[in-house]
Amino acid sequence: MEICRQDDALQISDLDPFLAELLRQIPQSTSPDGAPAAEARLFSRPSAEKEICAEWKNYVEPELRRLFRTATETVAADLTQLNGNEKSLRNRTLRIPVEHAEAWLNTLKLNDHDRSPIGSRRDLGLFQVNFYGFLQEFILRELGGQVGSAPD
């Protein structure tokens, strides 16, 4: 596997089928629906006061859900490049447009490693966490702090 920045995109090439599968499962393992622990982590109570919590739930939480969903949809669209024949993945390159970097970072943070469709063994989970962390580090390093900053 080779990872680099090429013009206006981050590229992952010479992709091993196992790593391609880890990438392809990102969108399906980011949904907190049906996972109370994930819901509690993502939409934690901002205060012990009921009124503040009610306002948060009415005004902030819907926008957070929309942002999470949009980020996941962006990543899923980028990952369609990896659809198809497993044997040909070594000849493919996953191009992540720089403008999608923030969506990737947010989606990688949302990932629920316990619901991995590959398995839930501790070692696989640790590998997944480290692999996704490596991708986050690469994205941040290549963008040099540009993520989330206002355009010129």
Report on this model:
There is one protein chain. With 152 residues, the chain is mainly α. 51% of the residues lie in helices and 10% in strands. The protein contains five helices and three strands, in the order ββαααβαα. It has helices at residues 17-24, 36-42, 50-79, 101-110, 122-143; strands at residues 2-6, 9-13, 93-97. It has a three-stranded antiparallel β-sheet, with helices on one face. A hairpin with a 2-residue loop joins strand 1 (2-6) and strand 2. Helix 3 crosses helix 4 (101-110). It is elongated and about 55 Å long. It starts with a strand and ends in a 9-residue tail after the last helix. The mean pLDDT is 81.
What labels describe this entry?
single chain; 152 residues; mainly alpha; three-stranded antiparallel sheet; 5 helices; 51% helix; 10% strand; elongated
Structural class: mainly alpha
Low-confidence stretches: none
| Cross-sheet strand order for the largest sheet | 1-2-3
Intertermini distance: 34 Å
Radius of gyration: 17 Å
Approximate shape: elongated
The largest β sheet comes out as: 3 strands, antiparallel
Order of helices and strands: EEHHHEHH
β-strand amount: 5-15%
Helix proportion: 40-55%
Q: Count the DSSP helices.
A: 5
Give the strand tally.
3
Mean pLDDT: 81
